[in-house]
Fold this protein.
Amino acid sequence: MKPQAHILLVEDDHAARVTLELGLKQANYRVTTASNGLEAIDLLEQDTFAVVLTDLVLGDVTGLEVLYTARNQPYHPVIIILTGHGSLETSLTAFRSGAFDYLLKPCEPHELITRVGNAVMQYNEQNQIRAAARTLYRQLGDAQADQAHPVTEMQMFDQPVHIANLVVGTSRRDVSLNGKQVMLTPIEYTLLRFLAIRPGVTRGYTEIVRITHQVDTDETEAQILIRPHMHNLRKKIEGDYLVTDRGVGYQLIDPSRAQR
C-alpha cells in the first residue's frame, strides 16, 4: 500500500476548510490544516508536505506569501491556489510565482481530488528527477557540482548585521530592534536581509523582487509587488531605517548617521 501523500490545506473559512479536509481524507490523503497564513508558514517550516492547497485571500499574510514560502522549502511541495476571487491578474500572478494549478471555489469534490492527484504525481516525478540529479552530481564529483551551483550574494549572508539598534540575524526569528525581537514574515525577512547585505546602497525594485518573489518583472509590477511588504516592514521597524529612493528602489541605513 502506497504511503499517504501529506497535504497542507490553508483556508480561513471554517466551513470550507472542514468540507475540503473531509473530501481529501476520504480520498486517503493525510491532511494538515491552517486557518491563516502565519500558521501555514510555521507548518511549512516544521513539517514536510507533498502538496500545498491554499486560498489567496487570508488576511494580513496572503496566499501568495504562503506560496513563496512553500517554494523555498527544501522538499519542494507542489502548490495549488484555491480562491473565490478569481481574475486573470491573480491567476497569472499565481502561475508566474510557481503555482502548479489554480481552482475557483466552490469546486466540485471530484475536480478537487483530480487536481490534487495530478499535483501529487508532479511531486513524485520531481523527486525522482532530483534524486537522479543528485546521483549525477556525485558521479561528476564535488568540484563540478559546486560549479553548477554558484554561491549567491544571499548565501554569503552568514553573520548577523548590526545597524545602530537593529540586528538582522541569519533567520527570520533572529531580528531585533532595541533589544526586542521583531517578528517578520518570510518575504519581509528576505527583503530586510537583502538590504542589510549592502547598507546604504539602493536596491532596485526588480532586483529586490527577483530575490523576494523569485520572479522577473518590469519596474512597475515589481514596485507594486514589493510595496505592501515594505509598508508592513516599516510598521515593525520604526526609526527611519528604511529609505525610499523614489522611482528606483529601497535602502537600509543607519538613521543616527543620516541625522548628523
